[in-house]
Amino acid sequence: MSNRYAPLAAPGVRTLSPYVPGKPVEELERELGIRDSIKLASNENPLGPGMAARAAMAAAIDGVGLYPDGSGHRLRAKLAARHGVTPAQVTLGNGSNDLLVMLAEAFLTPADEAVMSQYCFAVYPIAVQATGATARIAPALGPDHAMPLGHDLGAFRALIGPATRLVFIANPNNPVGTWLGAGELRAFLDALPPAVIAVVDEAYFEYSRDVDCADASLWIRDLPNLVVTWTFSKAYGLAGLRVGYALSHPDVADLLNRVRQPFNVNSVALAAAEAALDDAAHIAASVELNRAGLVELRRGLAELGLRVLPSAGNFVLVDFGRPAAPIYDALLREGVIVRPVAGYGLPDALRITVGTTTENARCLDALARVPGASS
Ligand SMILES: *Cc1c(COP(=O)(O)O)cnc(C)c1O
Q1: How far is ligand 1, taken at its centre, from the CA of residue 67, in Å?
Q2: What distance, in Å, lies between the first and last C-alpha atoms of the chain?
Q3: Which of 100, 141, 214, 261 could in theory staple to 145 by disulfide, Cβ–Cβ 3.0 to 4.6 A?
Q4: Which residue's CA is the closest to the ligand 1 atom numbered 12?
Q5: How far apart, in whole angstroms, are the C-alpha atoms of residue 110 and residue 131?
Q6: Residue in 92, 123, 200 to alter for ligand 1 test, most ligand atoms within 8 A of Cβ
């Protein structure tokens, strides 16, 4: 395990553990010699891209001999119009992951701190630690709270001090699907010291419209220290293309642009994202498929006697009340890839992405066959 060059690495990188992605279908099939497996591990849209985005990608191929528009002018103009901000308030990223890294690079030094929740997106601590800054972890709400394992904004507040530069909030959250209401989140943001930048990650927002989930993007004009990130990877079905964006005060965007790679979003992705934005029917179909699928998964998991945490996203966290690794392995042998979350400090749970009706049924059938999975 020892790395001979680790002593030469930047201090923040020396102790960093890399992000562990969901297992790709091809890898599982190669390892087990099986076929027709399904992946419900990375919160992708089971429909993939819509027809308009597919056509735009095909048309953009002719242009890939040239560098993309490094400013993403057309996509930024469209996003600005959609969110009621100016193009100078929109920063594009190679996925929203890229923006999280840019935020850390732009605002953090080894003397600084960033606050995040105990159960939060794994990219936040990685981006923070890589800069040498310190990630301060706010204990999550308890398992019996109405938002079990959700963000405890009181615990965030207690960790905010003179060294705090960034606060990361995912709403809805991942790997738990919990969410914050508008009143609670707005009060927290209003009370933040002006020298603290709040990053609200709304990667799953499109899926959350049935519940009282705050949309912080509506507050960009009121709160100069607020950054809201969105992505084309989830409801838009473009995870493989890597496009996301941040909305912020223009001065924050200006700083992000100083660390942004000049051509961080490729031309095929720019074209697809523009087309996808106009394809309201595909988003509506994706959101509806997810709504129905959440009901199917919840009902089936409850019938198996399993505890499912509340979710406003396109996934559910299932608490098995016992180590989940053997259940994960048994599901793999059934050709069903879900997401272990032991690395998030949740060894008894698995995260399952909502799939198509057929995929959800297959996952539930497989779980029913796993000895000891249901209670
Ligand atoms: C999936 C996800 C993202 C999106 O990542 P991209 O880099 O845009 O693909 C961002 N935040 C959270 C919490 C996520 O789960």
Answers
A1: 25
A2: 38
A3: 141
A4: 203
A5: 7
A6: 123
- Ligand 1: residues with CB < 6 A are 43, 95-97, 121, 170, 174, 201, 203, 231, 233-234, 239, 244
- Structure confidence by residue, pLDDT tens digits, 49-86: 999 999 999 999 999 999 999 999 999 999 999 999 99
Structure tokens at 229: 């990130």
Question: What CA–CA distance (Å, rounded) separates 190 from 371?
Answer: 50
Give the pLDDT of residue 105: 98
Q: What is the pLDDT of residues 343-371, one digit of tens each?
A: 999 999 999 999 999 999 999 999 999 98
> Residues 242-251: what's their mean pLDDT?
98
- CA-96 nearest atom, ligand 1: 8
Ligand 1, atom 11, residue with closest C-alpha: 203
| Statement: residue 107 has pLDDT above 70 | yes
Amino acid present at 302: A
3-state secondary structure of 336: strand
